[in-house]
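An example makes the point: we let one protein speak, the chain in one-letter code, the fold tokenised, and here it is:
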Amino acid sequence: MNTILRKSVLGVAGLAFTGGVFAGPVAAHAADTTAQAAKPVTATVQSDKLIPHGVQGAQSRIDLDDEQTKNVKAIIAATKKAGMDERAAVVSIATALQESKLENLGHLGDRNDHDSQGLFQQRPSSGWGTVEQITDPEYSTTAFLKGLKQVDGWQDMPLTKAAQTVQVSAYPDHYAQWEQQAADLVAQHWNK
């Protein structure tokens, strides 16, 4: 009897464990799905035109407020005005996401990186323009694009290399994390 009882207890414990293993992740996933259902879902763009090299590394994403969305639209408008394509807008938006999270930053006092300001954190002392100019989204985007045009073969480079060649950042690989969101924003706003 002892052996039969022990086998029965172990069998029940095994079923409980197996049920927990299989039901646990399913229940957890269901909870995650419910929690995300309240957030708006953004389509992820996979386009050879917008992301010709595929995204590199883990991607970051932030929710944009009205001011940041306005800055996205200003970058796209300046890109079109410069006669450049959607890929140039993706590189520009990803760069501005990394540099300022698409916020038109003025001088930040002790937290400032030298005299960097605006969407692209451009510096008057490095010849990007006056403070008034580089805090104007159209001007700062045009200045960035002018630099991008001077990079031979930028269209065939990974985004982070093209952005870094223009920006000369201390963190050259950080631009790549914004490529997917930048492409999604260009896809959403280019034809509006």
